[in-house]
Amino acid sequence: MEHHCPKCGREQPHDQLCYFCHEQERLAKAIALTDEEMKEKADNLKRHVKRLDAFEEPETYDFASLFYVHGRTDEELQRAALKAEVYGHDEIYYHAPADVRDELIRRLMASTNSNEAGQLLACVAMQGDDVSLKALVELENNPRPWRKGLYVDPSVYAWDGGFTFDKQGNRLEVAHPECFAIETGNPDEDHAIRLGQPHEGRCRHCGCQLMDIITIDGHDPRLAFLGLDGKTSISCCPNCVQFAYPVAYAKAVPNGESHPIFPYEGVEDDAENYWTDEMNDAARANRLVLSKERKPPFYGLFFDDGNTVGGFGNWIQDCEVPTCPECGQPMKLIAQIGWSTLCNDFMEGTLYISYCNNCHMAALQHQQT
After folding, report:
1. Taking the alpha carbons of 104, 107, 111, 113 in that order, is the dihedral positive or negative?
2. In the prediction, which pLDDT does 247 show?
3. What pLDDT is stored for residue 209 in this prediction?
4. Which run of H or of E encompasses 261?
5. Which domain of life is it from (predicted)?
6. How far apart are CA 97 and CA 131, in angstroms?
7. Where are the chain's structural domains?
8. Does 1 or 299 have the greater pLDDT score?
9. Is residue 28 predicted with pLDDT exceeding 70?
């Protein structure tokens, strides 16, 4: 028997709030926290920080509320996490002070265990300053024995901290620390972004109507950090982009050319189209706009369907940084969009959009559980 969410009407197998509405309520509660409530939660976190590694509640939710939603952490919490050897929540060490950074690096260099070393690599990457960069470069060029037990190099672990580096050790940014939420509003009044609008033409694989998955006005002052000189539309086939592996590309020139680049790797030319006209209408009618105020860089990590422009990606599987097909440089994440916010009836998962400002190329990657 099918039921509907009492708040948004989504079809589902139970009569309670759907996952998306439930998470929206949790987010609203986190946003509404008072300074006194946040201090109380921060004090409790310092006393029970070890519970974060086991993803226990309420500590995990409190950390997400304080750090992801409000951008609040403090050096004492970072030192408490270090003392308790908490490595699973590597974000806790984001821009940690020098003493924490130096101890993380010392433990990493002294490690003999691949699993521990992998966690510490991510923690050092989250700290992210030039000293941490130098340590990761050293380990890339002179691997320790534990490297044999890892799947990727330190330059890939650096992605967690929003950067990587080339063979000469030069820093290359792959995420924007500036972040704005995509939230419900009035698109007739705020034109900074527009999602899910029809694009001329049809997919060469499945015949689906093409879509401008997102249009970004680079002249809006809030979005100046993206470095887009004008309005930029990023186009795709909404049906086939979910099957493209490892990445689908689009040409997206500000105030100019915008089109998907076919063929999509891994997609057959006679692919079935699951994206119906009704889904197209639902996506076109969305009421999503850019938030008025800047959010913390990890705001989009609060729950799986968090939508953001800029900031860090909430990678459902693993963080993946695509390379530009024209210049070969790593591309920078500019947006993440949960499919359920565009169309209730389509599918789960998130579309991650990266961009090369030099070549005007966009990369689109779909992930789901």
Report:
1. negative
2. 97
3. 96
4. strand 258-261
5. Bacteria
6. 11
7. 1-32, 37-173, 176-367
8. 299
9. yes
For residue 270, what are its two tokens? 């006679």
| 154: enclosing H helix or E strand | helix 154-157
Considering all CA atoms of the chain, what is the largest pairwise distance in Å, rounded to the nearest integer? 60
- Between CA 134 and CA 144, with CA 138 as vertex, the angle to 5 degrees is 140
Which amino acid, 51?
Answer: R
**What's the DSSP call for residue 125?**
H
User: Torsions phi, psi of 121, nearest 5?
Assistant: -60, -45
Q: Strand, helix or coil at 221?
A: helix
Q: Could you write out the DSSP letters of every residue in 312-351?
A: ----SS-----B-TTT-PBPEEEEEEEHHHH-TTS---EE
**Burial of 293: CB neighbours in 10 Å, binned 0-12, 13-18, 19+:** exposed
Residue 338 and residue 350 in contact, taking contact as beta carbons nearer than 8 Å? yes
Q: What confidence score (pLDDT) does residue 345 get?
A: 66
- Asked if residues 241 and 264 have their Cβ atoms less than 8 Å apart, the reply is yes
| CA proximity to 363, closest of 282, 257, 275, 245 | 245
Q: What is the pLDDT of residue 109?
A: 97
The C-alpha atoms of residue 65 and residue 61 are separated, in whole angstroms, by 6
Q: What is the pLDDT of residues 120-168, one digit of tens each?
A: 999 999 999 999 999 999 999 999 999 999 999 999 999 999 999 999 9
Residue reference for tokens 């076109």: 284
Question: What DSSP designation does 166 have?
Answer: -
pLDDT per residue as tens digits for the range 183-210? 999 999 999 999 999 999 999 999 999 9
What does the pLDDT look like over 38-81, one tens digit per residue? 999 999 999 999 999 999 999 999 999 999 999 998 999 999 99
For 9, other C-beta atoms within 10 Å of its C-beta total 11
Cα angle 209, 211, 213; round to 5 = 155
Instruction: Please give the model's pTM, rounded to 2 decimal places.
Output: 0.94
* DSSP string for residues in 22-75: HHHHHHHHHHT--HHHHHHHHHHHHHSGGGGGGT-TTHHHHHIIIIIIT----H
Strands 231-236 and 258-261: unpaired
